[in-house]
Design a protein that fits this description.
With 315 residues, the chain is mostly helical. The chain has a domain at 79-193 and 223-306: MetI-like (MetI-like fold, Orthogonal Bundle), CATH 1.10.3720. It contains eleven helices and no strands. Pfam families: BPD_transp_1. Its main location: membrane. It is found in: Cell membrane. Keywords: Cell membrane, Membrane, Phosphate transport, Transmembrane, Transmembrane helix, Transport.
Length: 315
Amino acid sequence: MASTTEAPPRKDRAPQRPGDRIFAGISTGSGVLILLALAGVAVFLVTEAWPSLTAPAEDIPGGEGLALYIWPLLFGTLISAVLALVIAVPLAVAIALFITHYAPRSIAKALGYVIDLLAAVPSIIFGLWGINVLAPVTVDPTTWLSEHLGWIPFFAGPASSTGRTMLVAIIVLAVMVLPIITAVVREAFTQTPKLHEEAALAIGSTRWEMIRMAALPFARSSIIGASMLGLGRALGETMAVAMVLSASGGVSFNLISSENPPTIAANIALQFPESSGIAINTLIASGLVLFAITLVVNMIARAVINRRKDFSGAN
């Protein structure tokens, strides 16, 4: 007797409601619009920078060519952003740990509000704080550093008498990126599986050992991603650095003298109003370099965040 196999009944796709189609269209259009805006910015920068890319070296401001014009700017941008990150990341992780694992709930909630509020402060306010408060305070400490630790390239001196140094710009940038990094890391710590934390405490671990074995491994990729996001913010900061830094050109690791390498964003803000002709194209070319670096940094941050693997277990 032949057996017959019946195909399972086909399930018709549920019809979409008009609201679903509208929402899907708006979401797709928004994503495409972002890509178009990014592509438009890239095309504009390349088009406007092209004359400086093909111009003779003597026509570029400084008379030494485009590469030698941009290199000090790129150096100042990278050293200020990276050193600001070196200061901000440990503080951000420590603050996030305090909020999520040590502080009482009322204090943690208030401190979380303060951190979020700090992220909303305009950069010009940080610049005013840096030039009027922080810069004068650092004059005596940097003089001491120059006299006693001058053998270290960062403190070679002579110390600036005004305090408008790369060190102050780095501290200001560190304070500016601190809320961004703290917010991301705090959310990662709050999502640590509770079963992992309770299991670590159940076997006799101290609170710090529990954090080291459960919380920090879970948040490691988020810390890296938050650091990259903070680095992107520090790379593109303009007004605060322009107000604080007394830039004089050149490449120097000396952080406490009055001769400081400028940053790309601050240099564009200061030089653009008085520039014309090929000088404008040169500034836009430096902006193209900053655009490329910021884009790469944010792409790396997104890749790191997307590679985060959730721990097994219930939250």
